[in-house]
Design brief:
mainly beta; six-stranded antiparallel β-barrel; 1 helix; 3% helix; globular
């Protein structure tokens, strides 16, 4: 990472199937795969109409490599922090999303919710029941 990098969490190159929807939009959501993921965000390609600041909802299974707990289904709300054209004849975009809040759906149907909390310059997941 260069000196201008702002990442605070480890980013792993993992292709995770996910469903992306633009918040407050009539555009239908669609399925895609992540290019990389961390506890604080995700990068993926999409053909949805997004720009920096756009609110999105992501549904996916967060891998154990990120949370150090068994893989679980996550519903994340976040916002687009960067958009880059990718080499695709259909005009898809590479999109970086920062997670703002999330819900973890437990196997027993229990739902945990959380928000990102800054603590001494480090990201911290805060779970609220």
């Amino acid at each position: 990472m260069g000196p201008m990098e702002r990442r605070r969490t480890e980013r792993l190159n993992l292709a995770i199937p996910l469903r992306v929807s633009v918040l407050n939009s009539t555009a239908p959501g669609h399925g895609t795969e992540s290019v990389n993921v961390s506890a604080g965000g995700m990068y993926f390609a999409t053909n949805l109409p997004v720009s920096r600041g756009t609110g999105v909802q992501l549904l996916f299974k967060m891998p154990e490599e990120i949370t150090h707990t068994p893989a679980s289904e996550w519903v994340c709300m976040g916002h687009v922090v960067h958009v880059r054209p990718v080499r695709d004849p259909n005009g898809w975009l590479g999109v970086g999303v920062q997670f703002d809040c999330y819900e973890v759906v437990e196997s027993e149907g229990k739902l945990e919710t959380g928000n990102w909390k800054m603590e001494k310059g480090k990201d911290k997941l805060e779970i609220r029941n």
